[in-house]
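Lab notes, practical 5.
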Amino acid sequence: MTRQGKLSLTFAVLGTLIGCAEMTEKQRSTAIGTGLGAVGGAAIGSFSGNAGWGALIGAGAGALGGYAVGQSRENEQRAYQRGVEEGRRSP
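Output from the prediction step:
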């Protein structure tokens, strides 16, 4: 990879991370899963000469997985907050 390519990739990653600052846990996990799935899918798809299709399928699978992880984390956080509130109410 050329120096310019590495620099462009670095700025793209930094821009994505900065853009995630205002996202909910579910949105952030979905975005990260989509990106990782696309990269993994493209890498796997390149072995059969279908990197584009691999990226597309990987992005979809990654988005679903990321959404599920984000949903689980948000549920855990809500349960924790309920426990804290119940603990404060009890004598």
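Observations recorded by the TA: The mean pLDDT is 83. DSSP finds three helices and no strands in the chain.
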